[in-house]
Fold these 3 entries.
Entry 1:
Amino acid sequence: MYRDAKATEAVHQARLAVVHPSFQLSAQNLLHYVALRHHDIRPLQMELAQLGLSSLGRVEAHVIPSLYLVHAVLCQLAGRESHLPYPEYEFVQGHQFLEANSAALLGQAPQNRSVEIMVTMPSEAATAPSFVETLLSDGMNCARINCAHDDAEIWGQMIENIHQARQKLGVECRVLMDLAGPKLRTGPLKPGPKFVRMRPQRDKLGRVTRPCWVWLGVAGQPVPADAEAFIPVAADWLDQLEEGDQLLFTDTRGNRCTLSIQNKDTALPHGCWAEIYRTAYLQTGDILRITGKTGPMAETQVGELPILELPILLKKDDLLIIHKADEPGEPAQYSLEGNLLQPAHISCTLPEIFTKIKVGEPIKLDDGNIEGLIVDVSAEKITVRITYAKPNGSRLRADKGINLPKSQLGISGLTEKDRLDLDFAAQHADIISMSFVNEVDDVLALQAELQKRGATDKGIVLKIETRRAFNNLPMLLLTAMSHYPAGVMIARGDLAVECGWKRLAEIQEQILWLCEAAHLPVIWATQVLENLAKTGLPSRAEITDAAMAQRAECVMLNKGPGIRQAIYLLNEILQRMQEYQNKKTTMLRQLKTDTVVLFDEIPE
């Protein structure tokens, strides 16, 4: 194994020659680890464990030092001298390299925990400095800006608020900008009516248990993430509203309804909260009137409401047409007798895939919530037969992911939008994250673009979210290591859809192992405490998932109404788990269980 490790290093001298000096020993260790894992060493591990020696089960960060030490002890037991040369670095230095590389990319970890917390910024972070300050106070260490949403003006406001908050609090917070990449998504749907529905919560007997929370605000200004409905109104009319005011209106069904003003949100000055205890529908142009008030300011018209999207309902065995033409999608059309007149249809964002797809290949829509099989392909359209959907049907909406896990699409690298976004990110971000990395050339393209912009000091993160990226991971890591600092994000959403749910657990394990061997920091991402962030209540399974995240260097949370609770809980979990787990090593701290009582209860 030692000879194989060194031979692999020798074969890749040309690749090692372009590795950044700070990554030189790390790149060698990665090659040593890949060589080691070409063998099935499970029988050897059992024999070593029986001798009370290291079983090489936690060798990732220090392959050669581990082999050297085990070989030396075996030689002593056999009564002969070890012929292996002394390693270039000590056993403990492997972990030190990883810590240094993590600090260079993500910033120094806080004193109370070793794993950092990254939070995806919602749009309101651009106009609510106090909100950003709160996130930092709660425990956020790194802010993620998703370039698939908003624009450069809003991103700039977010970053300015982050800088002000970290300066005020005296804490570190790196900014990561996530380039969208060539994501294959569904196209737009045929627009529906412009109205808003306000619906309170009810129990099974139809009794109201909680009112609907409505945000009255100015069009174009941020809307709180926990608003259940939004009504745009004129700014001058909004300013006069006070807590306790009652707003009367007649909804689209002719029902007389009342909105009760609750309070104004100081963090978001362009709006106020209201509540309603009955289901109501408002459309653009409807009148809101303040009770007990007269004059021209007593009433206002509802502003322009967003167009309601009409999703496509798909059931098992339905047909779906995905077409090249840029036409709005529509649900299936049926005759009065229930006969199919026209299947549901929708466009996609990357029509060039039509020449790469074959009949019989699987397709997954909306993060795998809908599955199908391609039954026909032409130059203009793809026909899909749905093989999996919810029993009552699944709704397909615009801008949802399309995955073709077994198709050779040949799509990767930076898009034109990515290059435009990179102009901004190269100036304002600390870290650039590249989506849908598949090939070595993709990494080289990003490095070349940073070179053009004089931004070689920026950190880079490779998002591993496809089957091809996983298969090419060792070479992707080696290529990334010609740039310093660098890291990896395990984007488990698309990765699970691409590789299958049953393989996600083992795949994320192998990514963690390879990155530890390369001494590259890992960001554990996608649906971490997702229920808590979105609904305020965590599931039991995601608590265990968050505990597993302790093995990465950073954990990413997505935005949502319960993001503060999610940060707080994740902070607690990570602090507690670091006493029990360090990467793959279980830390045997003193048990909290009263072992004396347990042993006393064992019968004789």
Entry 2:
Amino acid sequence: MAWDFIKSLLVFLIIIFAFVLLLLLPREMDITHHGGLVFTADFPFTFDLYKEKIAAFVEHFRMEKGFGNNSMGVPILEEVQKLLLRDFTIIVPALLLSMGAGTLLGIVQFYFRDKIIGKVQAFFSWIFSSIPDFFLFIALQYLLIKLFYIGVPKFSLYGNDHWYNFLIPMIAITVFPMVHMVKFTSAALENEMGQDYLRTARSKGLTTLNILKHMIWNCLYSILNQTQFVMLYLLTSLPIMQKLASFQGAGYHLLTSIQEFDEPRALAFMLPYLLMMFATIVLSKLLKYKLLPQKAGALQ
């Protein structure tokens, strides 16, 4: 466990270092006027310019003794703390629904796999796994706008001024990872069907539900492994969804900071995302070591 933690920490530090190097790549556009309406645009890159940007970045932290203030004079770390709370209103329910509801629906799909309800569920899982989250977001907004026209009470679809503004972005980024967990859980249980311990369980006269309980327990190790994929998907999709919804959370301002070449502020907004990913990896491994010490294939 200690070695796994050290490896995860090293990967985490390497990712931060790589992100900073990418962030500091010269991206400013150089526009040249050739007379009349003739212009050319170029993105010049030289190692001298790259080194200047790195030196200026390091000097900023030395002079400010930290991330400093934003353009409004507010300390960047205070801004990050405030906006990160808005992100949690999306990330936490999305993660719980993806892992919890997705796993439960996967168990239901497996249990009823030979019946009409299981086949219908498998069909809809296939449909929703093919829909990009941004398309789902736009489709939800279009549907709600049409409902407004036929008399459904109107409410705000954009911004973050109302308590319910997190719902549409949360639904949009939850559907794919939840469907992924449905399909993964069902497939994992299918793979357990050929294990020897099932024949032992049947010979002991255990009921189907008791056998299913043992199968689920032996699949938990694989299911917990998917937590990292689910969190990675949520964190990478969140900034785009916030931008589309004008939901001004940390992800929204991360993209804005990158576009405005405000590297220290961009790093301040990126670090919590990387820390959440790192915490997810460590906690999922800890749960596997503490709760599932035995390997799959044995009757629990």
Entry 3:
Amino acid sequence: MKKFVYIVILLISSVSLVSCDDFLTTDNKSNVTDKKYFSTKSGFESLVSNAYETLRDIYASSSYTTYFNAGTDMYADGRNYINDELHEYETLNPENSVMKELYTACYKGIRAAYAVKHYAPDAAVDEILRNKRVDEVRVLAANYYYILVNTFGGVPLMKEYVANAQTGYPRSSAADVYAYIIEELENVIANGALEKSTARNGGGRASLESARALLAKTYLAAAWDLDKKEYFSKASQVADDVIAGRSLVTPFADLWKADYSGDDNEEFIWDVEYDYATAANTVSGGHPWSSFYCNHIGGQEDHGKGSTSAFIVTLHALQCFERGDIRYEVTFMKELPDIITASNYWYWDWYRNGETFIGTPLKRYYPAWYETEEDIENWRALDPENRKNTWILPMSDQTRDPQEYMPGEIDYEAFVTYSYGGAPCRKFDDSNTGSYSNKTDYRDIHIITLSEVYLIAAEAYLKAGDEGSALARLNEVRRRAQLNSATTIDVDVVLKERVCELFGQGSRWIDLRRTKKLVEYNNLYNPQIRGRAQQVIGGKLLRPIPQAAIDANELMSSEDQNPGY
């Protein structure tokens, strides 16, 4: 596929930031005859592959966590800082490079998707396949527009591939963008050209199931943003169409197995697909998710795993997990051996030994916030010889030095800035590669999951005024986590459940913005701006449209910039 993608890039060009053309259109700068090549079956399929490849520009980007989770209640600065502008808001401006990167990647994906539509009529494929591929890329483009409107508000709408350079596109309203996404997805669903589901076949292809799931997400967001209560009802109905009477039957731990065995489960509705067995580059051709949400826990020479050392879980997020919630130990690694060059112990030994460190001397233990002294002593008693000297690092306001083992207590917020500080996230580990490199995770990246659809339905039913149905959907997620059923529900309850079920996967910033909780939750729980969120966020309730995009677009001006910038 890489060879095909390279040819496609030659034909439809790459992205740069020089003119409006670079954000929104394509221009054939090669001597290859594009129409001739893309009219062949292999050429057309390579164009489709290129459209899917653009998903990696966002979901496999090292900036993924910054795109969607900076400036929220769940993640804090670690040994490395989160992007200050996006996490602390005060200095955020339209020159922010990360937002320019996201904005550009979305339009690159839209352009690649609509190139497929453009060349499809002449492609040497049968009508069934042609219609299927066109509808697949319509879902891709709709997903990119969903990201754009939920991050930047109204944006320029490009609805077709344009082969020649354009001088500008006006900014459309958020209402128009939502209307376009909804129209596209409803048409795709009505056409019925897509497979019903691709989850068990890798999940990488858009399907009717993923189109409906994205439509439910879109109706939910549009209901909040446009103040259309009837859209909450539509969101709940479409989400129930996706659920289709199914329960969450696969144990949470089996879904998130580090050996990929859960990747093709029916709950993973739509993925960015990876395959280590067939990867052309098994050294650095994967994605960095294994390194996310984890502080430095030893260098390459120290038998550790790669880590970004940023976006460390906040105490608030940890405390969203209740005692007995089986998702906690699937999400976080609670035990670490002495990971140093002189030892023979590795982080990855936990997987090699059958997901246990029994028999291995342990250096650090990160008990869940609800564990008592008795719980910790019971834990030591399971392997007393190897746990008698383990350094206990409480997940509480006052904890201990995780690095130098100094006596006394330190604040949790200082604790997470140390190496080994914070509970390491293991949810996205790749045990087949077991590498220190940040690009050797070959597990699928899950864009939409069935449990998220349950939570979409819960939120939509709640806002539509049907609390009974909202509780039923929420409690199906809690049942699988082996928790008691909730008896009351509000937006805070749904957001809390999203922390536990979707830790690391979700777009927390979008969730808080959508539910009008951005300022409140940052004020309460973002360690960097606690107590002053209203002051520093102010009117910055959307991300800034990149100044480069405005300057390059003859039909946009400074008047099109979002409030607060």
